[in-house]
Design brief:
688 residues; disordered N terminus; four-stranded mixed sheet
């Protein structure tokens, strides 16, 4: 067992604040091209010696990207100082080398609709667009991105090649700015819970951790399964903390979708990679079979499902892990720091280990890899002219290489991960200072960081959902779906049809509107008993708007209220099913509660306040207090929930002075009957 060591707002030359959504077009409406890196350098030299050129970077959250952004409330820069200095250095270097200033443009709404509508208008909102993870497939299918194939030479060499994502549908479309240290869903474990399992200890009474097995070259699928069996045997009768999914502590509670993806890539498989479609490859089938085996053995449990019967609850495994309800899980990366903090508060701590390899492989096998799905990518919008596009590529390369060298205090980006491993691992919640396994954990963390395979495009091209539906239904035996190895052969047409559809779109010059309309609630749907559904003016309650077509006429919507009995007072959940399509055929379907009330009812509603009332912070905005949080229940004579109809008389409430105050709550039902109750609320300064 190895031992461990112990713990303005200013418009600068580089960072202009957000501009309007449809700021001036960058140039001619044609795709760009680049013949060679020498040609780009020549163009760059011209820019550097002439007029300053602006390259617009689009983002959904400017404070995270712009080092000169100031929080209006605090007057402080929103970016952490070390990151800010690295960003400023990067912007200065872009200006120095290219005479280019980067201007940040914040989208006004959803990136998927904002980018599409701007390109359709012939006025792209930005030059390089940051696309949040999960939106890439939708945006790619809109055919609004330029191909980046001719820019490969810009990103030649280890210092830059990581910035250009691999090809999809035979072409490069996306850039990456992330130096990735761990998977989107890394395999993590509770060190403290492992320490309690005697079967995991060696002859000296020391716990054998996953990192020991990994570094010793033993962390294969059989070893992992045996390890989980020992954990499962110990915790089989140990009560789980309150609020977790299962009554006992689980060995490995997780989302089978992400465990499956990790196993597939660990086996050398893929759903789609630079070689094309691989959902039916031997390696992919092997990875999914391993997860199915763990589930059938009772060693992998999923945290319940949604109504469709095979999709796990989103992030529930990580939630249960935080509470101590499972020893292992595949945690979303954005939960890691929270995981670590929660475990530390209980005297426990968190470790991580790469996903194990198949028994017929080894740690050093070239096919063994850790998967990182593509996300938070950049794309070059159509409508950006050739000169601007070339400078956009060069500025992106210079910016991010400079940023990481400055932030990591290294001479080469290739050295960044090793230089930052300790601080990133610690900040992510991993216990690298643990006296029993901290050194090993850091060593394994570094290995993992340098082996991340950053080209899982399956979600990006829209096939991962198809694959996981086939796999998930097979696991649950839903809809007669067979096990994955059999089912995948019978369902290959779903993938080939999807690929053919996308290839046709990307091979055309047409911009495709694939954004469905959105419904908005104007007010709660409440009508008196005896109302005829044909007489209801739905536009009084709901509106529909499309990103391209604007406000839609609800007269064209399909209305289904068959679940509502308009002769009987009550609350009908999902009583209204409404759907509407835009001119491009994109359909939106939503469900709404319908309340039918008795207008002749004279019985006052029932109002019950909570036994323990929330305190109000000193200097809180009284108009923003949600008074329904103070109410246990509020119902009318028919039992209809009317919590949303609570009002409060706050004329005597002074949130600027600590103390106890009377507040009168009034509840009014739909027939106009009221009930009131006086509560005492406390205004106090926040603790700590």
């Amino acid at each position: 067992m190895r031992k461990t060591f112990k713990k303005a707002l200013a418009v600068a030359a580089a960072g202009t604040l957000a501009v309007g959504m449809f700021a001036g077009c960058s140039g001619k409406n044609k795709d760009s091209s680049l013949q060679s890196s020498e040609q780009t350098s020549s163009e760059s030299s011209k820019a550097a010696s002439g007029e300053v050129k602006v390259i617009r970077w689009g983002t959904h959250y400017e404070p995270e990207l712009n080092p000169n952004y100031i929080d209006e409330a605090t007057g402080e820069y929103t970016m952490k100082e070390a990151e800010r200095q690295a960003a400023l250095a990067a912007l200065d270097e872009v200006k120095k080398q290219l005479n280019v200033e980067i201007q940040y443009v914040q989208y006004s709404g959803d990136v998927r609709s904002d980018l599409m509508t701007s390109v359709l208008s012939g006025n792209p909102i930005c030059d390089l667009a940051l696309i949040w993870g999960g939106a890439e497939s939708t945006i790619l299918a809109q055919n609004i991105l330029q191909k980046l194939d001719n820019y490969k030479s810009v990103f030649d060499g280890d210092e830059y090649s990581w910035m250009l994502d691999g090809p999809v549908y035979g072409h490069n479309y996306f850039l990456s700015s992330k130096q990735t240290f761990f998977q989107r869903w890394p395999l993590v474990y509770n060190i403290g819970l492992l320490d309690k399992v005697d079967a995991l200890k060696d002859s000296n009474g020391k716990t054998i951790y996953p990192t020991d097995l990994f570094l010793d070259g033993k962390w294969n699928w059989s070893t992992f399964k045996d390890y989980l069996s020992k954990v499962n045997a110990y915790y089989a009768n140990v009560k789980a903390p309150d609020g977790t999914t299962y009554p006992t502590v689980q060995a490995y509670e997780t989302d089978y979708r992400f465990a499956g993806l990790s196993a597939v890539y660990a086996a050398g498989g893929a759903l789609y990679d630079e070689n094309g479609l691989r959902v039916d490859s031997e390696e992919t089938i092997k990875g999914y079979k391993f997860i199915a085996d763990l589930k059938e053995s009772g060693l992998l449990t999923d945290p319940g499902t949604y109504d469709d019967g095979f999709v796990p609850k989103w992030c529930q495994g990580a939630s249960d892990f935080q509470k101590g309800g499972t020893v292992f899980t595949d945690s979303p990366d954005w939960w890691l720091a929270g995981n670590g903090s929660a475990l530390t508060e209980r005297g426990e701590s968190m470790g991580m280990v790469p996903y194990p390899w198949p028994d017929d492989m080894s740690k050093d096998d070239k096919k063994y890899r850790q998967v990182m799905s593509v996300g938070d990518s950049y794309g070059l919008l159509k409508g950006v002219d050739e000169e601007t596009a070339k400078l956009a590529m060069e500025s992106f390369k210079i910016y991010w290489s400079t940023y990481y060298k400055k932030y990591g205090n290294v001479d080469k980006v290739a050295d960044y991960k090793n230089a930052m491993a300790s601080s990133v691992a610690s900040a992510s919640g991993f216990d690298i200072f643990n006296e029993n396994c901290g050194d090993d954990l850091l060593e394994v963390f570094k290995w993992n960081a340098n082996k991340i395979y950053n080209n899982d495009f399956s979600d990006l091209i829209g096939i991962r959902g198809i694959c996981e539906e086939i796999y998930g239904k097979g696991l649950y035996g839903k809809d007669g779906m067979q096990a994955y190895d059999v089912a995948i052969k019978a369902n290959m047409n779903k993938f080939t049809d999807k690929l053919s559809e996308m290839e046709a779109i990307l091979g055309s010059n047409e911009i495709k509107d694939n954004i469905a309309p959105e419904f908005s609630t104007i007010q709660t749907i409440a009508v008196p008993v005896g109302t005829s559904s044909d007489s209801i003016k739905w536009a009084d309650y709901i509106s529909a708007k499309d990103a391209v077509d604007g406000v839609l006429d609800l007269a064209n919507a399909k209305i289904d209220v068959s679940a509502v009995d308009f002769s009987k007072a009550g609350e009908y959940k999902d009583g209204l099913v409404i759907s509407i399509s835009d001119k491009s055929g994109n359909e939106k379907k939503s469900k709404y509660k319908v309340i039918v009330y008795d207008p002749n009812n004279k019985t006052a509603p029932t109002l019950t306040v909570k036994s323990e009332l929330p305190a109000i912070k000193l200097n809180a905005d009284a108009s923003g207090i949600k008074w329904s949080d103070y109410v246990e229940s509020a119902t009318d004579a028919a039992g209809v929930d009317i919590k949303d109809k609570i009002t409060a008389d706050i004329s005597t409430l002074d949130t600027t002075t600590a103390g106890e105050y009377d507040v009168v709550l009034t509840i009014t039902d739909y027939a106009g009957n009221t009930a009131t109750q006086t509560i005492k609320v406390t205004v106090k300064a926040s603790e700590g």
